[in-house]
Amino acid sequence: LQFTEEKLGQAEKTELDAHFENLLARADSTKNWTEKILHQTEVLLQPNPSARVEEFLYEKLDRKVPSRVTNGELLAQYMTEAANDFGPGTPYGKTLIKVGETQRRLGAAERDFIHSASINFLTPLRNFLEGDWRTISKERRILQNRRLDLDACKARLKKAKAAEAKAACEGDAVPDFQETRPRNYVLSASASALWSDEVEKAEHELRLTQTEFDRQAEVTRLLLEGISSTHVNHLRCLHEFVESQTNYYAQCYQYMLDLQKQLGSSKGEIFSGTFVGNAESTSPPAAATSPPAVAAATLPAVPTIPVVPTIVGVPNTVAESVLNPNEVKPPASGTRKARVLYDYEAADSTELALLADEMITVYSLPGMDPDWLIGERGNQKGKVPVTYLELLS
Questions:
Q1: Where along the chain do its domains lie?
Q2: pTM of the model
Q3: Does domain 1-173+188-271 have CATH number 1.20.1270.60?
Q4: pLDDT over 90, % of the chain
Q5: What's the rounded Cα separation, in Å, for the pair 15 and 164?
Q6: How far apart (Å, rounded) are the C-alpha atoms in residues 367 and 319?
Q7: Which H/E stretch holds residue 338?
């Protein structure tokens, strides 16, 4: 009844102090944002909604979640099987095995990251929502009931006092004993006494409900002030989540750098071994390509580069493998400065080792793979991968 009258604006409501209201608002905000962060982190770690539902059901049934292969590990499995089918000794098979092994390592790193994030970040957030927040919600409901009881007693006492005052006014009138029925005076006096007893009962109930309300308000206040400790705990968990995520991406970056070095060092050999036979068989006769003797006497000597047929989709790396960077001259125009992004270890004598953040001069030569440039540092010269450079204008 009290709740309905308050909603209809027909009853007064005991208001909590401003500090208590702020604690309530802070607790509600913490709960709402914790739910959103928890859900979105679950989506980040497991984008598949069906898999998330399956894990939720296993958790509710108190059963162990079955081990699930990551996408990287599954891709590694397919690549390894394909390499075995095509031939592990072929260039394509060798590359599939290398890439597959890297994908397997990436999948294992992802599995470790998911496990670490689940224990150090998701579990504390979930424990707050299923533990501390449920306790807070329960005590808040009890406080709401205590507050309704208190306001109901206040309304009852107010009505009893109003009726007592009205009966007292009627009892103060001087009775006329000449009337045939002077009993109205007696009835008014007895009604005043009854309302006095009602007032005493209402005041006693009000004191009891006020005591219970104050006690429950103090309990609820202590729980709400504990939200600060919850924030501190979640802050520590957030640092651990960022640390594990940083380690995960650092591992992935290192794995891909290692793979890139492996593929970069073997790419020229693979394509050279594949197409050099075709290049030799399709090259024009030496007499057709040699300049006249008179012209040869007047022209400066330059390194000769075998002519290799252009194959669509395959870089012309034969010229690159035959070309010795130490014997070429930089073009008159077209050189640029470049900043090295990462350390690079030269795979052979034709490449130039790089150190991060150093400045070098780079340029391209006809017939070179677009993924490589000629780099110069003082008297040192060699091929450098474009992906390790930041070209400056």
A1: 1-173+188-271, 335-392
A2: 0.59
A3: yes
A4: 47
A5: 28
A6: 6
A7: strand 336-340
